[in-house]
Amino acid sequence: MSVGKKIRFEVFKRDKFTCQYCGQSAPDVVLQVDHIEPVSKGGADDIINLVTSCFDCNSGKSNRTLDDDSVIKVQKQQLDELQKRREQLEMMLKWQREMINIDEQAVTELAEFWSDFVEGYSLNASGLKSLKKWVRRFGVNEVIEAIKDSCCQYLIYDEEQEQHTQESVDKSFNYIPRICKSRRQQQERPYLKDLYYIRGIVRNRCSNCVDWECLNALEAAHLSGVSIDDLKAVALTTYNYRDWLAETQVLAEHEEQEEVAHVS
Q1: Is a pLDDT exceeding 70 seen at residue 261?
Q2: DSSP states along the chain
Q3: pTM of the predicted model as reported, rounded to 2 decimal places
C-alpha cells in the first residue's frame, strides 16, 4: 500500500531523515517509509505505524517486525509529541476562554462606570452589545476616557426631575465611539484639533458651510504648507463660504508652486 507524499514527508521530518533500523541518513541512502506493523498483518496506514527506513533495510525486512526496542522508542516519541500538542491546545483554549471572560467582565464594569455618571439609568442589552463592540475596537482605557469626556460635555441635569435628561443621556452614550475615533485621529494627525477650530469659525460666519468639504479643504491646504495661523486669518475675514473655499484652495496651490520653485 503506497503512502502519500504529505504523510511520507511528515514521517521523514519526525525521524530526522534517518533510517530507524541502521541509523544511516539521507542523502547517503535512499529513504522509504515502512510499516512497523506490516500491512499483511493488519497494520494501518497511519503515521504512528510508519517509520523511516532506508531501501536496503526495507527490502530485507519483508513483512517481519523490528525485533529490538526501535518500535517502542518511535511510538513513545509519537505519543509524547501528541500529548504535548494536546496540552498546548488545552492551554490555548483555556487562554481564549479566559480572554472572553475578561472581555465580559470589562464590559460589565464599564457599564457600571457609565451608570455612575447617570444615576437612575442603566444600559439595556443593546447598549451592552455596543459597549462590547467599542471595547474590542478601541480598548478599555480609550473607552473609559471617552465615557468621562462624553458625560462631562453632553449630560444635562434637569433640576425639576432631579435627574439627567433622557436626550442628553442618549447623546452622551452615543458619542463615546465618536470621541474614541476623534482621539485616535488627533494622535495620528495632531493638527486636526486646530482645523476643527477653524472649521467652527467658518461655520459660524457662513450659513452654507459644508462641514466635510470645509475640513478636507483645510487639511489639504495645511498639508501643502499653509500655516494654521494663515488658515485662521482667512477664516476670520470671510463671510461667504464659496469665496472662502476658493481663497483657501488658492493658498494651497500657491504653497505647492513655491515648493516646486525651490527644486531644480
Answers
A1: no
A2: ----HHHHHHHHHHTTTB-TTT--BTTTS-EEEEESS-GGGT--SSGGGEEEEEHHHHHHHTTPPPSSSHHHHHHHHHHHHHHHHHHHHHHHHHHHHHHHHHHHHHHHHHHHHHHHHSTT----HHHHHHHHHHHHHH-HHHHHHHHHHHHHHH--EETTTTEE-HHHHHHHHHTHHHHHHHHHHHHH-TTHHHHHHHHHHHHHH-TT--HHHHHHHHHHHHHHT--HHHHHHHHHT---HHHHHHHHHHHHHHHHHHHHHT--
A3: 0.47
